């Protein structure tokens, strides 16, 4: 761009006859020549491409995945269109004993990341790996002990236990009430009307003595 500006200034210099305008153009010419001289040399194409590969685009956090397990491995499946076309070094996974980070660089102009912290049980860093398949990355976490995992992370386990405790009570009617409250809170208007109607009818039956009060 600077080179084009300089050429245009030189062309104007050949055409102008007025001293004041010529002086202004000469000043601009020297300024442009100095800027061009101080510019860093162009990088080789492969270096430029490599930098673009590592920095280009914006980063997308991966939230969708599937998982499965065998006796020895936890397998996490991440769908990414065209990932098999990337150079191997663009798909990186770092493992620790209780976590892993996935980074996919410059896939269709975007970077993709996924982080799993607080895995349910320890994994072997050396035995874990990743495989790139057609439109998919498979993360293989090698279990330290060959046992079944009920979920992927400690947070998921605690969440399930809390939910179970809310409905698993010694009093069956209390468990039912908690379930109804959850359905009411999460339901749409139609669901709320149905629960309200059932509740009113139940109270009416209790008051008439049609059903025992403790049910």
Automatic annotation (TrEMBL):
Source species, domain of life: Eukaryota
Claim: Nucleus is one of the keywords in the record: yes
A biological process from GO: heart development
GO cellular component labels: cytoplasm; nucleus
Main localization of the protein described in the UniProt heading: cytoplasm
GO molecular function: S100 protein binding; tubulin binding; ubiquitin protein ligase binding
All residue ranges annotated as the SGS domain in the record: 138-215
CDD domains the record matches: p23_CacyBP (cd06468)
Annotated ranges, domain CS: 60-153
Localization in the cell: Cytoplasm; Nucleus
SUPFAM superfamilies per record: Calcyclin-binding protein-like, HSP20-like chaperones
Keywords annotated in UniProt: Acetylation, Cytoplasm, Nucleus, Phosphoprotein, Ubl conjugation pathway
Job of this protein: May be involved in calcium-dependent ubiquitination and subsequent proteasomal degradation of target proteins. Probably serves as a molecular bridge in ubiquitin E3 complexes. Participates in the ubiquitin-mediated degradation of beta-catenin (CTNNB1).
Protein's name according to its UniProt entry: Calcyclin-binding protein
Gene: Cacybp
């Amino acid at each position: 761009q600077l080179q084009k500006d300089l050429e245009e200034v030189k062309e104007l210099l050949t055409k102008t006859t007025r001293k004041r305008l010529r002086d202004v153009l000469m000043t601009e010419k020297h300024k442009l020549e100095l800027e061009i001289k101080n510019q860093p040399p162009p990088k080789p194409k492969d270096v430029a491409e490599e930098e673009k590969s590592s920095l280009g685009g914006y980063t997308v956090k991966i939230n969708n995945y599937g998982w499965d397990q065998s006796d020895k491995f936890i397998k996490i499946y991440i769908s990414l269109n065209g990932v098999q076309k990337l150079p191997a070094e663009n798909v990186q996974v770092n493992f620790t004993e209780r976590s892993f980070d996935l980074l996919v660089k410059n896939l269709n102009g975007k970077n993709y990341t996924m982080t799993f912290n607080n895995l349910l049980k320890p994994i072997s860093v050396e035995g874990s790996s990743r495989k790139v398949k057609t439109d998919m990355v498979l993360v293989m976490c090698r279990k330290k002990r060959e046992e079944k995992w009920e979920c992927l992370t400690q947070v998921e386990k605690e969440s399930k236990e809390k939910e179970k405790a809310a409905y698993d009570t010694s009093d069956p009617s209390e468990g039912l009430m908690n379930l109804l409250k959850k359905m009411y809170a999460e339901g749409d208007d139609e669901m709320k009307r149905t629960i309200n109607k059932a509740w009113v009818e139940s109270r009416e039956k209790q008051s008439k003595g049609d059903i025992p009060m403790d049910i």
